[in-house]
Amino acid sequence: MTSAFSRFPVRLQEAIVSRLGWTSLRPVQELSSHALLDGKNAVILAPTAGGKTEASMFPMLAQLMDNEPAGVGLLYIAPIKALLNNQAERLGLYTDMVGLRRFLWHGDVKASDKKAFMKEPATLLMTTPESLEVMLLSSKVPHAKLFGDLRGVVIDEIHALAGSDRGTHLISVLERIARYTPNDIQRVGLSATVGNPEAILHWMQGTSKREGCVVDPPKKPSPKDLKVHLRETLGAIAQEASQKAAGQKSLFFCESRSLAEDIAERLRNRGTDVFVHHSSVSLEERNAAEARFYQGENASIVCTSTLELGIDVGDLDLVFQANAPSTASSFLQRLGRTGRRAQQRANTTFFCEDIEPALQAIAIVELVRTGWVESIKLNTRAWPVLVHQLLALTLQFGAISAERCWQQLTVITDFSNITAPEFDTLIAHMLREGFLYESGGLLSMGDKAEKVFGRKNFMELYAVFSSPVLYKVTTKAGYVVGSLEQAFVDKLVEEISSFLLGGRAWVVKHVNHSDRTIRVEPAPRGKKPNWGGFVPQLLGYEICQQIAAVLKADAAIPYIDPQTQVRLDAARDDLGNLLKKAQEKAQGQCIQYEADRAIWWTFAGGQINHTLKYGLQYGHDWKIVADNFRLKIEGDSVGPNTINLSLKEIRTQRFWDSPTTESFVLSELPEYRLSKFQQALPDLFSLEMVKNYLLDVPAALSFLNNTHPSNRLDQQHINNIKRS
């Protein structure tokens, strides 16, 4: 078979050899180049640092070299600005070495540079979904000139966008841009970890008529260094982590900003340079952390998911994880930050505060060992983004008919199960509530929408996610430490309150609400701020079932230390034996009964358990609390007979299809605010959003009838938990 390299223009071949010193392409680059040069859309899968960027950029640039576009020929889209900045030099080299240009467009780029770009567009435009929206909504941007000859788009870290409101937003914006060009825009998605790439491909293709393919070459197994350590105090975790990190470069991932701040403070003064990296730390601090870490040899960045994506912070020795991430995908992304050098193993050490996160970490490792990773659940009724796009279209065109909006939006997969009558209901509601205004059959933005979303020249409309009101935290000398959300600031008392930010403790000297600033001074000790929200974090069915499988197994886990094994053995003797006994029964339900109380250990995940909660509450005056692993049921009539009768009832599809059941469930749902555009929806559609986040009726029915396709509680799988 002809090599893909030989299909590149000679100028590109020579540049790859002379400028990069390459003598061959990697398998993923060969396969991808053939697919893209053949004109296909593609989702390209490869591990972090596996060559995905070149696998997409080389063949896409090759197609632009001999027939340069009039305007932007190729979009490179990343989920975050930091990744754009990180890739700017690299992609600048690739375009420069073949005589093309690239331009970086986001909020931090100077207006004068953007003006020059619009006057003389570059071939490659690097940007984010939100910045693309800014361009479409700006009357100063010549849309037809820039996008009239657009040929292709590369979406990096596509798994971070698919299945989310931001992903729906991106696809919507791409379809709006596609109307400016006669070209069938070639679409390419890059990812290291996704469980259903074919579905992501279908979602990404949108209205493109090109053939599509998934490029997923066989991955050579490589040994990993994985450890799970249960340490019951943060002080013990910090002490052990600092000993391991001494003289090396490490990332320490945490699941919350407050935990990152707490661990960073405890790591300081233990012989390692410690930096903090999360969304409330100032941009200057984050940039300084990345730069100093890149150049250092004895440094650790304590971070949240802000460093999970493929941002290059130089050669990395170790990855630490406080407790456990909620997905196997996140674990793989973080694990992949190491093991990039020759003779270096990818590694992760979990430091867990309790047995529950330790079990979660073990379960994720065991699932990954089988090759499993989550599938991304795609949405076909994305109500908040539909509201967002309606408002964006009125702003883009000044006034637009409802029919034209429907025509543009109905082609998008994420809205495909919203019917025309439902769309009309939404329009009528937004008109009635003042979010839209109609004149002469055309829709314009209403007064209420302008009041809610029109601040700072409609900044709130550029992004589908909510930007919290932030207060800038500064020292007496004017140094910006970071920012705090208003809900936290409202609880601060001058000269008394203290908090952690940037890994240091600060005492509040003065709060200025008019200009949203907080002046602080260093404090000897700090209280950790409460960053959390009230919306529950839901674990998936497979991870929870795997935790149950670990509890029911007998074999020792090879990558945990003796202290953790002792705690695991105790959990197996207690809850593990309970699960084993329940499995021997016909129905296999593990329910503990006490006086007027029952605990049902399902290990079915948050969505299934919350679905079961509302089903069991129907027709009963029971108080039920659900989490990822169990349901606590309390009430005067709680007992085996009443619960078995209820289980028999909710096990049928007829029960869930009943209008009275539907009405009851909707009336009981909590009023979670999942999107800033939720306020513009009719109550029924707003509740549907909460229902889709919290509940999964088909999965609950499969669980109740023991037909779930991912059921992992069979004895064969339990016996497979053995030494590597």
Describe this structure in words.
With 724 residues, the chain is of the alpha/beta class. The chain folds into 5 domains: 4-215, P-loop containing nucleotide triphosphate hydrolases (Rossmann fold), CATH 3.40.50.300; 224-369, P-loop containing nucleotide triphosphate hydrolases (Rossmann fold), CATH 3.40.50.300; 383-462, Orthogonal Bundle (Arc Repressor Mutant, subunit A), CATH 1.10.10; 470-522, no CATH class; 580-719. It is built from 30 helices and 24 strands. Strands 3-4-2-5-6-1-7 form a 7-stranded parallel sheet, sandwiched between helices. Strands 8-13-12-9-11-10 form a 6-stranded parallel sheet, sandwiched between helices. The chain has a 5-stranded mixed sheet with strand order 17-16-20-19-18. Helix 3 runs parallel beside helix 4 (52-65) and helix 22 crosses helix 23. The longest helix has 23 residues, at 562-584. The model is unreliable at 526-534 and 712-724 (pLDDT under 50).
The total strand number stands at 24
CATH topology of the largest domain: Rossmann fold
Quickly name the level 1 CATH class of the largest domain: Alpha Beta
- Main sheet specs: 7 strands, parallel
GO molecular function: ATP binding; ATP hydrolysis activity; DNA binding; helicase activity
InterPro entries: ATP-dep_Helicase (IPR052511), DEAD/DEAH_box_helicase_dom (IPR011545), Helicase_ATP-bd (IPR014001), Helicase_C-like (IPR001650), P-loop_NTPase (IPR027417)
Protein name: ATP-dependent helicase Lhr and Lhr-like helicase
Domain Helicase C-terminal: 229-384
